[in-house]
Amino acid sequence: MHRFFLPFLPPGREEFPLPPGQTKKIRRVLKLGAGDEIVLWDEEGTEYRARITKAAGRRVYVKILDRREPAVEPPLRVALIQGVPKGDKIELIIQKAAELGVWSICPVITERTVARVPPERRRSRLRRWQAIAREAARQCGRVHTPLIAEIAALDELWEGLKGEVYKLIFREGEGRGLKAYLRENAPPSSHAPVYLFVGPEGGFSSREVAAGITAGAVPVSLGPRILRTETAGLVALSLLLYEWGDLGG
Ligand code: SAM
Fold first, then answer.
1. Does the N terminus or the C terminus of the chain have fewer Cβ atoms within 10 A?
2. What residue owns the CA closest to ligand 1's atom 2?
3. Where residue 36 falls among pLDDT bands split at 50, 70, 90?
């Protein structure tokens, strides 16, 4: 069935006109008309089966038949808290993490961050990162576009995350391995997010790890080799979604 992105579902209305941008393809290219069914999807990850009720000129009215959360989204909401790396490595991280199934990414400044993003360029960078996430999500058939947060200071995040249960801070040689952690603990039963903290090139300082532990984060290792920052988050995300999610089928 043909799928169309719907940025905004009119609240409380079962029948409504589609935005003009969508109707040209429906009418002229696909030649769909009254009685035909289509699928609408929004950025929240919801799909709506809809029937065209009226189609005249550029006006296409649809009626929602039912809604569902499609199976392309992982059963687990993973937030990657990533130390901002040098150069444009963050773009690769965003693209690949979106494909793998990340829910959101928050770039953070830490004690050892060397990358500099001047404040006046942060808005345009954020827009570019959001566009990369959107394109990666579209390309791999996801219905949720990973949320990209504004650059934040790591130290300021802990307080707001105090109530969150699943927080893993990655540091080589620290604590137990991720494999053991995932096998000894049960995945969240609700939509409680899992937060993965990955340091920049220079890693987290001992003070930062201690602050994380005080806020309830669990220090975990990814094994005996030191991975580059752009590898570590993607590996952690893959292992998590393999063990607790839907990666690997
Ligand atoms: N020498 C740095 C240090 O002192 O932490 C290495 C940093 S590493 C290049 C960048 C980040 O990737 C680390 O802060 C950590 O979050 C993650 N990382 C890389 N290898 C890891 C491993 N084997 N176990 C856990 N985390 C790892």
1. C
2. 203
3. very high
> What pLDDT digit, counting tens, does each position of 127-168 carry?
999 999 999 998 888 888 999 999 999 999 999 999 999 999
Cβ(203) – ligand 1 distance below 6 Å:
yes
* Distance (Å, whole) CA 220 – CA 185: 13
Q: Is the CB of 170 under 6 A from ligand 1?
A: yes
- Indicate the residue among 68, 95, 121 that finishes a domain: 68
Which residues are CB-contacts of 130 (< 8 A; sequence separation ≥ 6)? Answer: 145, 148
Q: How many CA atoms lie within 13 A of 219 on its CB side?
A: 17
Q: Best substitution site from 227, 231, 238, 240 to test ligand 1's pocket, by max atoms within 8 Å of Cβ?
A: 227
Q: In this structure, is the dihedral angle defined by the CA atoms of residues 146, 10, 1 and 46, taken in order, positive or negative?
A: positive
Residue 159 belongs to what domain range? Answer: 78-243
89 lines ligand 1 (CB under 6 A): no
Decide if 249 is inside a domain: no
pLDDT of residue 45: 66
What would the pLDDT profile of 51-71 be if each residue is shown by its tens digit?
999 998 888 999 999 988 777
